[in-house]
Amino acid sequence: MKDIATLPNTYLNQSINNIDKLSETVRTHLGIVNTQMPLYVVVKQQVVSLIVESPILANQLKYQQKDILDHINRTFLREFKQINVRLAPPVMQRKKVTIEHKPLSKGITNMLDSIRDELNN
User: Fold this and answer.
1) For residue 89, which of 48, 55, 57 has the smallest C-alpha distance?
2) Residues 6+ apart with CB under 8 A from 48
3) What InterPro entries is this protein classified in (predicted)?
4) What are the structural domains, with CATH classification, of the chain?
5) pLDDT for 35-82, tens place per residue?
6) Model confidence, pTM
7) Dist. CA 37–CA 28, nearest whole Å
8) Listing from the earlier edge strand, what are the strands of the sheet with 39-44?
9) Of 1, 33, 72, 118, which one is least surrounded by beta carbons within 10 A?
């Protein structure tokens, strides 16, 4: 009997493996190399979602939806009802913020010097 604490992890590992198998099957069917155009397949309640980063690939996949759904159903012996093509939002690169320290004015430096001298005495 499995330990109760390992059951959620087992379920997560199994679902991740299923997603990987689906993604690999669709990639080989379409002839897409993952390093050039990432493609992920997610299943939720008999609806297959293809998640891509390229808008051009998303447009091409919309014309092949029925063929992809038939191929997945034949390969995995399942009955998925619908297929959606979704575009993943682009990953934004943060700009490095450079902080410029401006020199203090003469009056402020004199005031800080006088406060420092008073504290030292």
Assistant:
1) 55
2) 22, 41, 42, 68, 69, 72, 80, 82, 83, 84
3) DciA-like (IPR007922)
4) 6-92 (3.30.300.180)
5) 778 888 888 888 888 888 888 888 988 998 899 889 888 888 888 888
6) 0.61
7) 13
8) 39-44, 47-52, 82-87
9) 1
Q: Where are the beta strands (DSSP E) in 7-91?
A: 39-44, 47-52, 82-87
Q: Which long-range contacts (CB under 8 A, 24 or more apart) does 24-29 make?
A: 25/71, 25/72, 25/75, 25/76, 26/50, 26/68, 26/71, 26/72, 29/68, 29/71
User: For 72-82, how does the pLDDT look when each residue is reduced to its tens digit (9 = 90+)?
Assistant: 888 888 888 88
SS3 76: helix
Which of these, 95, 110, 117, 71, lies nearest to 50 by C-alpha position? 71
For residue 17, what are its two tokens? 């493996």
111's tokens: 């005031």
Nearby residues of 57 by Cβ (< 8 Å), 6 or more positions away = 32, 37, 39
